[in-house]
Design goal:
This protein is an alpha+beta fold. The chain is 56% helix and 14% strand. Strands 1-2-3-4 form a four-stranded antiparallel beta sheet, covered by helices on one side.
Length: 287
């Protein structure tokens, strides 16, 4: 009713946030006292029967008291002005720093169109810039409300700068992680593809040297007199060798390990001769 009536007249209304958005029919106590004078730009009748309204903020106001809540809330208000005693130079410096920070966030984010950079650069008013960035940032309702209630433009800008700095750092960290993961993945994919290509070429040439080497090791292993446990461990090491890239240092280490297993005298014994005269005769002969 309020929207329809105001739209026919001056198109101006007061917009205030609810303290709890889950309340469908808020009372006066459920609303914040500081809000925004807003102009209705367009009313959209949605297919599901609901109404969406596009509004544009004009200035801030404070609710003094409620006059009536039938058929909608009507209140006596006081327009809020920005503090006049703050240095203009400080506000401009804060605005310049915020512009740089906002442009950085736009470049880091994948969800914000690059055209937003031109919008930010062309805003001259420090107060309008701060309000614009705050309304389009990832701040919570309470944080935005706190900014709205602050009359000092510079302080409002410093508070916003703290939030945007955190947002910028999070985006940088997120991008660094994604870049590192992508880089590692690309390297793994590259090595895998090269390995597969090498294997295909080697198969076409009559089998790869790696496969042939494993076959030779396996044949030598069959001749060893080791237990089932050792045989299973040997086969496991051969499978590991097949998964390794022959160009890596780990491959040569694995080959040496397997060769050592094969060369060890598993369950092979020699008869010792402890005849001291024979030993003395052999040693004297060698001497």
């Amino acid at each position: 009713k309020l929207v329809q009536e105001v739209y026919k007249k001056n198109k101006i209304l007061g917009a205030v946030a609810q303290k709890d958005s889950s309340i469908d029919d808020p009372e006066f106590e459920d609303l914040y006292r500081v809000g925004t004078v807003a102009q209705i730009l367009k009313i959209l009748e949605m297919p599901d029967g609901t109404t969406s309204v596009i509004i544009q903020g004009r200035k801030r106001f404070k609710i003094n008291d409620l006059l009536t809540d039938k058929p909608y809330h009507v209140a006596r208000i006081t327009p809020l002005e920005d503090a006049e005693d703050e240095p203009a130079a400080e506000s401009k410096a804060v605005a310049a720093a915020l512009k740089e920070l906002a442009i950085k966030i736009i470049r880091l984010s994948s969800n914000i169109p690059t055209e937003a950079t031109f919008a930010v650069k062309n805003i001259e008013s420090p107060s309008f810039l701060i309000n614009f960035l705050a309304s389009n940032s990832e701040l919570s309702l309470k944080e935005k409300q706190a900014l709205l209630e602050n009359n000092n433009v510079a302080k409002r800008g410093f508070t916003l700068m703290e939030h945007l700095s955190k947002e910028s750092q999070m985006l940088e960290l997120k991008n660094d992680i994604q870049t590192k993961v992508k880089s590692d993945l690309d390297q793994q994919q590259r090595e895998f593809l090269l390995h597969q290509q090498m294997k295909t070429i080697q198969d076409e040439l009559g089998g790869s040297p790696q496969d042939q080497e494993v076959i030779e090791f396996r044949e030598k292993g069959k001749k060893k007199k080791w237990s089932k446990e050792v045989a299973a461990a040997f086969e496991k090491e051969l499978e590991k060798l097949l998964r390794l890239n022959p160009a890596t240092g780990e491959y040569s280490v694995q080959v040496n390990y397997i060769q050592t297993m094969i060369e060890l005298p598993w369950n092979e014994y020699t008869k010792d001769n402890f005849n001291m005269k024979r030993a003395s005769r052999i040693l004297d002969k060698d001497h």
